Amino acid sequence: MNRGAVVGLAVLAILGGVGLGVLAAGPGGPAASSPVNSGLVAVIGSTPPSLEPAPSASVAPSSDAPSIAPSASPTPAATPILVPAPLTGRLVSPAAAIRHPIAVMIDDLLPARPQSGFSAASIVWQAPAEGGIPRYMLVFQENIPTDVGPVRSSRYYYIAWAAELKAVYAHSGGSPQALATLRSQGSGQLVYNADEFRWGGSFHRITTRFSPHNLYTTGKQLRGIATAQGARDGAIAWPWTFAPDLAIRLRPTGGRLQVAYLANSIRYDYDRATNTYLRSVTGEKKQIDAATHQRVAPKNVVIMLMSFGPLNDGSQKHRLEAKVVGTGTAWIATNGTTIKGTWKKTSLTSPTRFFDSAGKPVVLTVGQTFVQVMQTGTKVVLIAGTPPVLSSQAIGQIPI
Fold first, then answer.
1. 130: closest CA among 320, 263, 324?
2. Is 230 helix (H, G, I), strand (E, B) or coil?
3. What is the pLDDT of residues 108-152, one digit of tens each?
4. In CATH, what class is 83-229?
5. Which CATH number fits domain 21-37+242-387: 2.60.40.10, 3.30.497.10, 3.40.1280.10, 3.50.90.10?
6. Which residues, other chains included, contact 369 with Cβ-Cβ below 8 Å and sequence gap of 6+?
7. CA 157 – CA 167 distance, rounded (Å)
8. Are 319 and 127 in contact (CB under 8 A)?
9. 4-52 pLDDT per residue, tens
10. Is this prediction's pTM over 0.85?
11. Fold match between 21-37+242-387 and 83-229?
């Protein structure tokens, strides 16, 4: 979609108004393909006018004024060079932009909350792990976190997402399917296997929680594992594209996304002022990062529908397998706008990509992305916010 078309959609949405909407994707097929929130599909940024400093007055010195030798001008400080981080688009130092990605499996049962590490993650994946009970995978790239945990066990489809970046993959044990994959392809073929059973000195158990919800590590220790395994820093090829926050006058007010796993309901409330999605989970109305005490509030939320089924690995633990390679329905929320599109992953190591209803890659907002992976047939509740009210003069100022 070109920039002019996006603006046209924005103006139509603003002038026409969009009411509340609830979509459900049932087993019979996906819901309607029209956007369900007001606002723009892509980010439109405005370029601030350049400001020229006012000329200073020139005063001729008196002929009998004492002569003053000019003093040496101080050397101006060098402007730091910043480049976009590949997974978030944030401006960071060149050294931070090439850090090798690290993915960590994180517990999501009630005794594990609040977890540590969310604030520093570039991407957060959440999907069912056992019998529909979810688990997280936090992907760190430009940031080095402090505490991270509680760390839990591996599943094969999480390896497939970590393999998109050939990440250092931190976990504590795993399903037989996952462990067999890590033994054969965990030395850099798919990922770098950072199993706590091997790298125990880089993990520790806290005393304020009971096992298995008390295993933690740190960003410094994880970086140490990366170095020891030869996971070198370097340029990262990543297809997601980012743009700055939409101007606040163009953002809607309110709006909500809501989905539920077997043991956990997740809700995102759009906050216009910060242009983020305030996250809540069952048992924790305002989800926080225990390491930073900050509210968990990503800039982008993607809800993916995927087929899951029993793994039948003989463990009687109701583990699941997923059709992780393929395509399916996705809802992409950014800048207060939610659109219906698709996700695609063409191979085990290829990146998961997101497209709008016309098949064009979506543009995300600079910042963190949460990816909610849900069982096909899950009810997805999307409630639109109130469209912004713009004067004719403001509409005319929307950049083309």
1. 320
2. coil
3. 999 999 999 999 999 999 999 876 789 999 999 999 999 999 999
4. alpha beta
5. 3.50.90.10
6. 87, 88, 122, 123, 124, 240, 298, 299, 300, 301, 302
7. 14
8. no
9. 433 333 333 333 333 333 333 333 343 333 344 433 333 333 333 333 3
10. no
11. yes
